[in-house]
Write a structure and sequence with these properties.
mainly beta; elongated; about 260 residues; single chain; ten-stranded antiparallel sheet; 2 helices; about 10% helix
């Protein structure tokens, strides 16, 4: 009987023992509509449909804009930003990325006693590079869409007191009631959320020399935080790549992970 149970116990150990800890941050919104199946956030009117997804490490802001008009629409990234607290983070990079390579040769002769020759060195080389210039504006033809991931919202996990978490015992894997693990959970509303931000998008249409801009502002906040040493895809709630949560991962020393 013990031999029959051993493979299942070994599988539990492999799932529970991790070399990392995971913080899963679930998002809610005050003025967009969340798709229950995919977790993405939608805003729509007669002119445009805007969709947000934040799935991934450090909350990548994935923005999809669909032009519902019969005329072109322009997205002004230079006048668009994420507002985190009181800080605005531009959706347009403020740097030029350069990819290149260098190759060269160097020769040196050292001075010897009683030699009239001095030290000499020479270096020569070539640089080949390509500059990737940031796009300030996106042209969107009628009835078409475009996706962009301009920034990451976080660099590290949210710092929260241990007293704010409660322990929950949850099932591993959907449909499997024989395996469970412990997680730490904290829940929030907008007013006490540890992380709130807004997305500010500037779009415009153009008729000749006349430009008509429209600004859209959408608000989001973290409504739930889960801390666990179990990889999130083993938890039924986080098995799909839903747009309403993002991850922060921290590597642990082996001894700490096992304990």
């Amino acid at each position: 009987m013990q031999l029959k149970l051993f493979p299942a116990l070994a599988l539990v150990a492999c799932v529970l023992v991790s070399c990392s800890t995971y913080q899963v941050n679930v998002l809610s919104s005050t003025n967009t509509t969340k798709d229950d199946k995919t977790g993405v956030f939608n805003f729509e009117n007669d002119s445009v449909k805007i969709t947000y997804s934040f799935y991934g490490n450090n909350a990548p802001v994935s923005i999809q804009v669909f032009n519902k008009l019969d005329k072109p629409l322009y997205i002004d990234w230079q006048r668009s930003a994420a507002i985190i607290g009181d800080n605005a983070v531009s959706y347009m990079p403020n740097q030029v990325n350069i990819l290149g390579s260098y190759s060269g040769q160097s020769y040196s002769w050292q001075n010897r006693p009683r030699s009239i020759a001095g030290n000499y060195s020479s270096t020569s080389g070539t640089v080949s590079a390509v500059a990737d210039l940031p796009k300030t504006t996106t042209f969107l033809p009628p009835h078409s869409q475009i996706s962009n991931v301009p920034i990451l919202l976080t660099k590290d996990r949210l710092q929260l007191p241990d007293s704010g978490f409660r322990k929950e015992r949850v099932y591993l894997f959907a449909g499997d009631s024989s395996m469970r693990t412990n997680i730490q959970v904290a829940s929030f509303v907008k007013d006490n959320s540890p992380f709130k931000f807004k997305s500010y998008l500037t779009l415009y249409t153009q008729n000749g020399n006349e430009i008509t801009p429209t600004a859209y502002q959408h608000e989001f906040f973290v409504s739930k935080v889960v801390n666990t040493i179990t990889e999130p895809y083993n938890l039924p709630e986080f098995q799909g790549k839903r747009g309403d949560f993002f991850l922060n991962v921290k590597a642990l020393p082996t001894a700490e992970a096992v304990n």
